[in-house]
Amino acid sequence: MSKKIKFGIIFLSKIFRGNILKKIFKCKFCGAPLHKDCVALNKKLIGRNVKEFVCLTCMADDFDCTEEDLRDKIEEFKEQGCTLFL
Amino acid sequence: MIYADNAATTQIDDDALNLMIELQKNFFANPSSSYKLSRPIKKILNESREKIAACINAEPQEIFFTSGGTESNNWAIKSFAEKNIITSAIEHKSIINSCLYAQNYLHCTATFLPVDNFGSVNPDDLQKNILPQTKIISVMFANNEVGTIQPIKKLAEIAHSHGKIFHTDAVQAVGHIPIDVKDLGIDMLSSSAHKFNGPKGIGFLYAAKNLNLIPFHDGGGQEFSKRAGTENFPAIAAMALALEKNCADMKSYSEKVSACSKILIERLKENNVDFILNGGENRLPGHLSLSFKNFDGETILHRLDLKNIYVSTGSACNAGQIKISHVLKAMKIPADYVQGTIRVTFGRNNTFDDAEKIADAITKIIGLKNFKS
């Protein structure tokens, strides 16, 4: 097999794998899968460099607020045009 | 709820609010009309002007009612924008943008004086930068972000020694610290009622009687033919009452909010929080700009919001980038602290307990566990 074809196959397989295996974030406490808005909220409310994320339920528990408060925050950030929530 | 953002706005005084409602409802005539229905309104308007003038040691005919600090600032700058204006690098946007307008449209240059690490203008810098063609110098009385009080008397002296006009944006200072325009040598001063427990949408410009102020609005003869438009006299009366009350109570208010600030600072130190207090010692009472190491001010603001604690921040997220305020940049706050800046400003309604709760909430957000609760 020529080098060009080999590299082409490797390149395409990386793209293919990337599309199939989208990164799934899970809550570091309860293991619940996280929606992208929840991931963005983690970055806004914990820090942009955060590596481990929490779900809304665990976040509300830790922050001593309600899940509705957190959903309101998500909407607030979206209305402000925050690009983390795009 | 703990509201600790009194530099943004203050809660209206109850008496001022009741007065405004009463006047709106029962004194609805136009103050400019000639019949007897308008006479008590004219009287209230004159009395309001006298009250405000007395609070800053001005004369009543030197007080012009405006829609607030932004209008007053625009009016002051644009009235005298000729060839060169001098201002500071940490002014409110209404001054900075008025100066930029003058640069772009009024054939004027603008000089922005630097500040030191405490946010203070050095009078020597003003002395060095005054040009023969400078007409007006504008330096804010106290900065809205960090609370630093400027050496106004010295700056005004330097301005006058060169025959220049001195204006000060005193929006944060009026009603909170004593101001005597004659003693300080101030030619023009801007103020806004909602910063001293008055209603929103009303303020005033003090302009010394020897100044030839250009009319801001053309039309009827209101405000000595300098600012046309039917007066919002319920708001004016409420503003005068709020200012009078604040000035009468100034000493005890100052002691209380200063004590709140001290409690918060001491509590943060006890909790081993790593922070900088911006602005030095000569600050507005109750005004704290705090920068936390390696943290994000916006994060602190929103986390406090979830706890119903309301403060403001020195940075803002703008399309994914954190934008630091021009004031903090000018003060050269260390890079690892500046992004973690919040502003806490105590007011009349805050208590010592509020100060402790804010400190403990910040400590928890920053992530330290060894604090008293």
Overview of the structural elements:
The complex is a heterodimer of chains A (86) and B (373). Chain A has helices at 3-20, 36-45, 56-63, 67-79. Chain A is mainly α. The mean pLDDT of chain A is 84. Chain B has 373 residues and is α/β, with parallel strands linked by helices. Chain B is built from 14 helices and 15 strands. In chain B, α1 runs antiparallel to α9 and α2 (39-55) packs parallel to α9. Chain B starts with a strand and ends in a 7-residue tail after the last helix. In chain B, 51% of the residues are buried. Classes of the chains: A mainly alpha (86), B alpha/beta (373). Chains A and B meet through α4 of A and α11 of B.
How large is the share of residues in beta strands of chain A? under 5%
Which blocks of ≥5 consecutive residues of chain B have pLDDT under 50?
A: 369-373
Strand content of chain B: 15-25%
Total of helices of chain A: 4
Structural class by sheet pairing and helices of chain B: alpha/beta
- Helix tally of chain B equals 14
Secondary-structure element order of chain B, as H and E?
EHHEHEHEHEHEHEEHHHEEHEEEEHHEH
Oligomer: heterodimer
Report low-confidence residues of chain A grouped into runs of 5 or more.
none
Largest sheet of chain A: none
Distance between the termini of chain A: 42 Å
Helicity level of chain B, as a percent range? 40-55%
